[in-house]
From TrEMBL:
It comes from Nocardia rhizosphaerae. Keywords: Membrane, Transmembrane, Transmembrane helix. It comes from the Bacteria. The chain crosses the membrane at residues 15-33. The lineage of its organism: Bacteria, Bacillati, Actinomycetota, Actinomycetes, Mycobacteriales. This is DUF4245 domain-containing protein. Pfam families: DUF4245.
Length: 189
Protein backbone atom coordinates (compact mmCIF):
# COMPACT_ATOMS: atom_id res chain seq x y z
CA UNK A 1 0.00 0.00 0.00
CA UNK A 2 1.32 3.45 -0.95
CA UNK A 3 2.26 5.64 1.92
CA UNK A 4 0.54 9.04 2.06
CA UNK A 5 2.67 12.20 2.35
CA UNK A 6 2.54 14.05 5.60
CA UNK A 7 0.74 17.42 5.31
CA UNK A 8 3.90 19.29 5.98
CA UNK A 9 5.34 18.07 2.66
CA UNK A 10 2.41 19.37 0.50
CA UNK A 11 3.20 22.34 -1.75
CA UNK A 12 1.60 24.45 -4.52
CA UNK A 13 1.82 21.60 -7.06
CA UNK A 14 -0.37 19.42 -4.87
CA UNK A 15 -2.88 22.28 -4.60
CA UNK A 16 -2.83 22.76 -8.37
CA UNK A 17 -3.45 19.07 -9.10
CA UNK A 18 -6.28 18.91 -6.58
CA UNK A 19 -8.02 21.96 -8.11
CA UNK A 20 -8.04 20.63 -11.69
CA UNK A 21 -10.88 18.12 -11.10
CA UNK A 22 -12.92 20.81 -9.34
CA UNK A 23 -12.52 23.24 -12.27
CA UNK A 24 -13.44 20.53 -14.79
CA UNK A 25 -16.53 19.57 -12.81
CA UNK A 26 -17.58 23.27 -12.64
CA UNK A 27 -17.20 23.70 -16.40
CA UNK A 28 -19.23 20.55 -17.09
CA UNK A 29 -22.00 21.66 -14.72
CA UNK A 30 -22.11 25.20 -16.15
CA UNK A 31 -22.25 23.81 -19.69
CA UNK A 32 -25.00 21.39 -18.75
CA UNK A 33 -26.98 24.25 -17.25
CA UNK A 34 -26.40 26.31 -20.44
CA UNK A 35 -24.81 29.11 -18.46
CA UNK A 36 -21.77 29.53 -20.65
CA UNK A 37 -21.03 29.52 -24.34
CA UNK A 38 -18.07 29.94 -26.62
CA UNK A 39 -18.34 32.47 -29.46
CA UNK A 40 -16.07 31.76 -32.38
CA UNK A 41 -16.94 34.68 -34.66
CA UNK A 42 -16.67 37.64 -32.27
CA UNK A 43 -19.40 39.89 -30.89
CA UNK A 44 -22.64 40.36 -32.77
CA UNK A 45 -25.12 43.21 -32.56
CA UNK A 46 -28.17 42.38 -30.54
CA UNK A 47 -31.69 43.50 -31.28
CA UNK A 48 -32.12 47.24 -30.87
CA UNK A 49 -34.83 47.98 -28.31
CA UNK A 50 -37.84 49.87 -29.63
CA UNK A 51 -38.83 53.04 -27.81
CA UNK A 52 -41.78 55.14 -28.92
CA UNK A 53 -40.21 58.59 -28.65
CA UNK A 54 -43.25 60.25 -30.28
CA UNK A 55 -45.61 59.00 -27.56
CA UNK A 56 -43.15 59.78 -24.77
CA UNK A 57 -42.55 63.34 -25.98
CA UNK A 58 -46.29 63.98 -26.46
CA UNK A 59 -46.89 62.75 -22.91
CA UNK A 60 -44.10 64.99 -21.62
CA UNK A 61 -45.52 67.96 -23.54
CA UNK A 62 -48.87 67.41 -21.81
CA UNK A 63 -47.55 66.96 -18.30
CA UNK A 64 -44.43 69.12 -18.02
CA UNK A 65 -44.55 72.90 -17.61
CA UNK A 66 -41.85 73.76 -20.15
CA UNK A 67 -41.95 73.43 -23.97
CA UNK A 68 -40.97 70.00 -25.30
CA UNK A 69 -39.31 69.72 -28.71
CA UNK A 70 -39.40 66.70 -30.96
CA UNK A 71 -36.52 66.82 -33.45
CA UNK A 72 -37.06 65.67 -37.04
CA UNK A 73 -33.97 63.52 -37.56
CA UNK A 74 -32.68 62.05 -40.82
CA UNK A 75 -33.34 58.46 -41.82
CA UNK A 76 -31.32 55.95 -39.87
CA UNK A 77 -31.68 57.56 -36.43
CA UNK A 78 -33.49 55.09 -34.15
CA UNK A 79 -34.94 56.04 -30.77
CA UNK A 80 -34.10 53.27 -28.32
CA UNK A 81 -34.57 54.73 -24.84
CA UNK A 82 -36.21 57.44 -22.81
CA UNK A 83 -36.63 58.56 -19.24
CA UNK A 84 -37.95 61.27 -17.01
CA UNK A 85 -36.06 62.58 -13.99
CA UNK A 86 -36.16 65.50 -11.58
CA UNK A 87 -33.24 67.64 -10.48
CA UNK A 88 -33.85 68.54 -6.83
CA UNK A 89 -30.82 70.81 -6.38
CA UNK A 90 -31.10 74.62 -6.51
CA UNK A 91 -32.16 75.71 -10.00
CA UNK A 92 -33.49 72.22 -10.72
CA UNK A 93 -36.63 70.94 -12.36
CA UNK A 94 -38.00 68.05 -14.39
CA UNK A 95 -35.88 66.46 -17.15
CA UNK A 96 -37.13 64.61 -20.23
CA UNK A 97 -34.51 62.44 -22.01
CA UNK A 98 -34.60 60.51 -25.30
CA UNK A 99 -31.76 58.30 -26.54
CA UNK A 100 -30.94 57.52 -30.18
CA UNK A 101 -28.70 55.21 -32.14
CA UNK A 102 -27.19 57.09 -35.06
CA UNK A 103 -26.69 55.60 -38.54
CA UNK A 104 -23.03 55.09 -37.52
CA UNK A 105 -24.23 52.89 -34.58
CA UNK A 106 -23.18 55.40 -31.93
CA UNK A 107 -25.44 56.47 -29.08
CA UNK A 108 -26.57 60.05 -28.41
CA UNK A 109 -29.19 61.32 -26.01
CA UNK A 110 -30.73 64.68 -25.49
CA UNK A 111 -32.36 66.01 -22.35
CA UNK A 112 -34.82 68.88 -22.11
CA UNK A 113 -35.32 70.66 -18.80
CA UNK A 114 -36.54 73.82 -17.15
CA UNK A 115 -33.51 73.55 -14.83
CA UNK A 116 -30.73 76.09 -15.13
CA UNK A 117 -27.71 75.23 -17.27
CA UNK A 118 -25.55 74.84 -14.16
CA UNK A 119 -28.04 72.54 -12.39
CA UNK A 120 -28.55 70.43 -15.54
CA UNK A 121 -24.80 70.18 -16.17
CA UNK A 122 -24.05 69.17 -12.56
CA UNK A 123 -26.87 66.60 -12.54
CA UNK A 124 -25.85 64.89 -15.79
CA UNK A 125 -22.15 65.69 -16.15
CA UNK A 126 -20.93 65.86 -12.57
CA UNK A 127 -18.03 68.20 -11.96
CA UNK A 128 -17.16 69.01 -15.59
CA UNK A 129 -16.99 72.64 -16.66
CA UNK A 130 -17.62 74.43 -19.94
CA UNK A 131 -14.66 74.41 -22.33
CA UNK A 132 -15.95 76.48 -25.26
CA UNK A 133 -18.92 77.22 -27.51
CA UNK A 134 -20.13 76.44 -31.00
CA UNK A 135 -22.93 77.83 -33.16
CA UNK A 136 -25.49 75.52 -34.79
CA UNK A 137 -28.40 76.93 -36.81
CA UNK A 138 -27.96 80.33 -35.14
CA UNK A 139 -28.04 78.86 -31.63
CA UNK A 140 -25.07 79.04 -29.23
CA UNK A 141 -24.17 75.68 -27.67
CA UNK A 142 -21.84 75.52 -24.66
CA UNK A 143 -19.35 72.64 -24.97
CA UNK A 144 -18.33 70.42 -22.08
CA UNK A 145 -15.37 68.30 -23.12
CA UNK A 146 -13.03 66.09 -21.17
CA UNK A 147 -10.34 63.72 -22.48
CA UNK A 148 -11.80 60.72 -20.66
CA UNK A 149 -15.54 61.51 -20.74
CA UNK A 150 -18.14 61.74 -23.49
CA UNK A 151 -18.59 65.27 -24.82
CA UNK A 152 -21.71 67.24 -24.00
CA UNK A 153 -23.36 70.31 -25.50
CA UNK A 154 -25.89 72.56 -23.72
CA UNK A 155 -28.10 75.25 -25.26
CA UNK A 156 -30.39 77.73 -23.53
CA UNK A 157 -33.55 78.15 -25.62
CA UNK A 158 -35.25 80.55 -23.21
CA UNK A 159 -37.88 78.44 -21.42
CA UNK A 160 -35.86 75.22 -21.75
CA UNK A 161 -32.28 74.01 -21.64
CA UNK A 162 -31.20 71.20 -23.99
CA UNK A 163 -28.27 68.90 -23.16
CA UNK A 164 -26.81 66.50 -25.75
CA UNK A 165 -24.27 63.87 -24.76
CA UNK A 166 -23.06 60.52 -26.00
CA UNK A 167 -20.49 58.73 -28.10
CA UNK A 168 -21.28 60.32 -31.46
CA UNK A 169 -18.84 62.35 -33.51
CA UNK A 170 -19.13 66.11 -34.10
CA UNK A 171 -21.30 65.58 -37.19
CA UNK A 172 -23.81 63.53 -35.18
CA UNK A 173 -23.88 66.16 -32.40
CA UNK A 174 -24.42 68.89 -35.01
CA UNK A 175 -27.25 66.93 -36.68
CA UNK A 176 -29.09 66.43 -33.38
CA UNK A 177 -28.39 70.00 -32.20
CA UNK A 178 -29.77 71.45 -35.43
CA UNK A 179 -32.85 69.20 -35.33
CA UNK A 180 -33.63 70.16 -31.74
CA UNK A 181 -32.94 73.88 -32.30
CA UNK A 182 -35.20 74.13 -35.34
CA UNK A 183 -38.01 71.97 -33.91
CA UNK A 184 -41.11 73.82 -32.77
CA UNK A 185 -42.41 73.02 -29.27
CA UNK A 186 -45.16 70.38 -29.26
CA UNK A 187 -48.63 71.78 -28.69
CA UNK A 188 -50.62 70.85 -25.60
CA UNK A 189 -53.99 69.39 -26.43
Amino acid sequence: MAQQKHRIFNDYRDLFWSLIPLVLISIVLAGAASQCSVATNGPTQGQIPHFDADAALRSDAESLSFPIRQPALPEGWVSNSGSRDTIVADGGGPVSTIGYLTPQSTYLRYSQSSATEVALARHVLGSRYATGTTDVAGQKWVLYTDPIEEPAWIADLGDVRILITGAGDEAAFTTLAEAVTTAQPLAKS
